[in-house]
Write a structure and sequence with these properties.
alpha+beta, 8-stranded parallel sheet, 11 helices, binds alpha-D-glucopyranose
């Protein structure tokens, strides 16, 4: 194997906003994207090096550096980059000179045959978090990961890789924070000190460039804001997609779909979404309906709509080889499929049998794919579930010489799913006009949050998978993905009633709340678990609906600053070693103020670590001091959820679906505290893009316990709130105050 190590700088030039450094092996380019974001791209062939699937921003035009004999010093208002000239090494510091992250002096960037690798110095107390959908511990120190989007059906709780690629991590050491995004779509590797030399960490890829963005902001929130600025933020989701979603592989007929939906209404268990998995199609042909079992999709969807349900249908990329099938004929005629190098379309087997696969790298193919959704939207589908887009094919081994445009599989595999989701999103956006679509995808790459929600694929009906789901969701939240979920109940296998109940209660505090199971598993609807359990499940789903004003405002935060809804405690309590403790690492904050402690189904008490501050148990208002481990009761009826003192949580009464208006009262629950807190309450029509032109209702709620004052700022935006009345409920003080909601000026409440 040939090893090349980046050597000495031979020339240094500045071209508008880029510093270009040439060595014998490669060219390195340095660009400043913002005072806290610097890109380093070291490439042997710069031709394609600037193309990115993930990045949507442009660099700043200014670059401030000075050249010394042996190094270059580049300064921004937040960062100092010292570039050693011989050998060429890149070292990042805070402005006052504290090391944030440095190249390993010996190996820095190097090439091991076709592989490009970067060795970095490992600090003794360094921790690593992030990388998105990865198993393992919150602190990834000592672990090694691979990014190679995989149909990881039946995966174990420690398997790697799974379905998605988010090559972004956050490093923590010496009380400092930094982030690093390796924007390279090839199969990539991250080693966080797994080699245990205690000197180096490294990352790299099978091909492409050493192309990374360094984030130097101090504080994880700020790093997430920067990362989501660079790669984009989610749009406001349709409100209905935050309600309860009932899925199944598969409800086999329109009648079955309607029966399930009407049972929810009959039993008054709130729900918003029904799904059709692959069996709604004719022979699994994408964009078709089964003529017998789903003979009149419009009539079915009209009936669903009359019950206030939305329908989500699945699409897979595999297009069945069958003459006379529109998508096949058009794809062949226009050369829209991925091919072998000789131009023959690549063929593999998936659900429909022998299939070809759209070349989603081609804009024309994206448009073609997107416009085909009329087959689903015409009868009234509003949600679009993109599956099997790793891409999956039986045997799981799509040959490396399969071509997408003029690029080959090894470079494309990790972005194929995101490009499919993008094609779906763009297509349905065009068709649905001003209506927000819901798009869901299984495979993803950094930036997918711009187009789609994601779920974590085929998990199993075990407690371990339920806990893993928390870590996956929390870790995805560190990579720009706020709208995420897991198959509640577990996809494969049958949960015990206790596990089903427990998992459902956890689902309340998961961004996407979807019950899903595989073909052949026992039925999973809330009423399949006996009367007593049904009552608990119903109560928990009701809790989700009560919390929707808080959850929706949380999504607004994600759309504005990239902060996820489910937050590992590491985000806000970074310096607290306890939050990385394996015992407590599954705990998370749901939005700004709720701490959720997952508990396995076989235990009825649990140890909970409460970080600094004061906390109230949601169900009892019992108060606890922070920075201690408590033993919490955890009956199946009461998942341990704790509220941070000073919390401001808007809620509503129970409704059966998000389409229901409710009683017009917004309950603003406030838990007493010691310091002033605030919450940005956000509301809009939940359905259209009118919010993008100021058609929203937004006000900041400030609680100041020292002044015994609650202030609601004047309303911003010109949407009229659906709530007529505000009721402020002060926990820890037992005070209730009523107020008019449609008073758009500032409201001061003294208590
Ligand atoms: C895949 C998906 C799963 C779906 C099934 C059938 O396994 O991950 O969610 O139900 O295919 O379409």
């Amino acid at each position: 194997m040939q090893i090349e190590i980046l050597g000495a700088a031979k020339s240094i030039d500045k071209h508008t906003n880029t510093l270009i450094i040439q060595t014998a092996e490669a060219q390195a380019r340095v660009t400043v994207y913002s005072p806290t974001i610097i890109r380093i791209c070291i490439s042997k062939n710069y031709e394609n090096a600037d193309a990115s699937f993930a990045v949507i921003q442009q660099p700043l035009t200014l670059i401030d550096y000075s050249e010394q004999v042996d190094h270059i010093e580049l300064n921004t208002s937040a960062l100092k980059l010292i570039i050693n000239k011989s050998p060429l090494r890149f070292n990042f510091y805070t402005t006052d000179g504290k090391p944030l992250s440095e190249d390993d002096t010996r190996f820095g960037t190097n090439w091991q045959a076709e592989r490009v690798i970067n060795y970095r110095k490992l600090y003794p107390d360094e921790k690593f978090i992030g990388l998105g959908e990865k198993t393992g511990n919150l602190n990834r120190r000592g672990s090694h990961y691979v990014n190679w989007n995989t149909d990881a059906s039946l995966h174990g709780v420690n398997d790697d890789p799974l379905y998605k690629t988010f090559p972004f991590f956050i490093g923590l050491h010496s009380g400092l924070t930094y982030g690093l995004f390796f924007d390279n779509t090839h199969k990539s590797y991250f080693d966080f000190g797994a080699t245990t030399d205690e000197e180096t960490s490294w990352f790299g890829a099978d091909g492409g460039d050493m192309n990374y963005y360094f984030f130097g902001a101090q504080g994880i929130r700020q790093i997430l804001e920067d990362y989501s600025w660079l790669t984009g933020r989610m749009e406001m989701p349709p409100l209905w997609s935050l309600g309860y979603q009932q899925c199944r592989w598969s409800y086999m007929s329109a009648k079955e779909v309607l029966d399930v939906a009407s049972t929810f209404r009959k039993k008054q268990i709130p729900a918003d979404v029904m799904y059709c998995d692959i069996d709604y199609m004719d022979g699994f042909k994408i964009f078709t309906w089964n003529k017998e079992t789903f003979a009149d999709p419009k009539a079915m969807i009209d009936e669903l709509k009359a019950m206030d349900f939305k329908l989500v249908t699945i699409v897979d990329p595999g297009i069945k080889i069958e003459e006379g099938y529109q998508q096949y004929d058009e794809g062949i005629k226009n050369n829209y499929f991925a091919t072998y190098p000789d131009g023959e379309p690549y063929t593999a087997s998936v659900w429909p049998g022998r299939c070809h696969f759209p070349d989603f790298l081609n804009d024309k193919v994206k448009e073609w794919w997107g416009s085909a959704f009329t087959a689903l939207t015409d009868p009234g589908v509003e949600g679009f579930w993109n599956d099997m887009n790793e891409p999956a094919a039986w045997g799981q081994n799509i040959p490396w010489l399969v071509k997408f445009g003029n690029r080959f599989m090894p470079e494309i595999r990790n972005v194929y799913g995101m490009e499919m989701a993008k094609a779906t999103y763009n297509g349905v956006r065009k068709i649905l006009g001003n209506k927000r679509p819901f798009v869901l995808t299984r495979a993803a790459y950094a930036g997918t949050q711009r187009y789609s929600a994601i779920w974590t694929g085929d998990n199993a009906a075990t407690d371990e998978h339920m806990l893993l789901g928390c870590r996956l969701v929390n870790s995805l939240g560190l990579t720009g993905m706020s709208f995420t979920g897991v198959d509640i109940g577990g996809f494969m296998g049958n949960p015990t009633p206790e596990l089903m109940v427990r998992w459902n209660s956890l689902g309340v505090y998961t961004p996407m709340f979807r019950n899903h199971s595989a073909e052949g598993m026992i039925m999973r609807e809330p009423w399949q678990w006996g009367e007593e359990n049904e009552a608990i499940i119903k109560k928990d789903i009701e809790q989700r609906y009560k919390l929707l004003p808080y959850i929706y405002s949380g999504f607004y935060q994600s759309s504005q600053i990239g902060l996820p809804l489910c937050r590992t405690l590491a985000i806000d309590y970074t310096a607290d070693e306890k939050v990385f403790d394996i015992k407590y690492q599954n705990q998370f904050l749901f939005g700004d103020f709720m701490l959720v402690a997952p508990v396995i189904s076989t235990e009825l008490t649990t140890e909970v670590y409460l970080p600094v501050g004061e906390w109230y148990r949601l169900s009892t208002d019992e108060k606890f001091a922070g920075q201690q481990v408590i033993n919490a009761d955890a009956p199946l009826t009461d998942l341990p959820v704790f509220i941070k003192a000073g919390a401001i949580i808007p809620m509503q009464n129970v409704i059966q679906s998000t389409g229901e208006k409710g009683d017009g009262i917004l309950f603003i629950h406030i838990w007493n505290g010691t310091e002033a807190t605030e919450f940005v309450y956000y509301e809009d029509d939940g359905l259209t893009y009118n919010y993008q032109t100021e058609n929203y209702y937004k006000r900041t709620i400030i609680f100041n316990p020292q002044k015994r004052a609650i202030t609601l700022s004047a309303v911003k935006g010109n949407y009229v709130s659906k709530y007529m009345k505000l009721q402020v409920i002060l926990h820890g003080l037992n005070i209730e105050i009523d107020q008019f909601a449609n008073d758009i000026g500032r409201i001061n409440i003294a208590y």
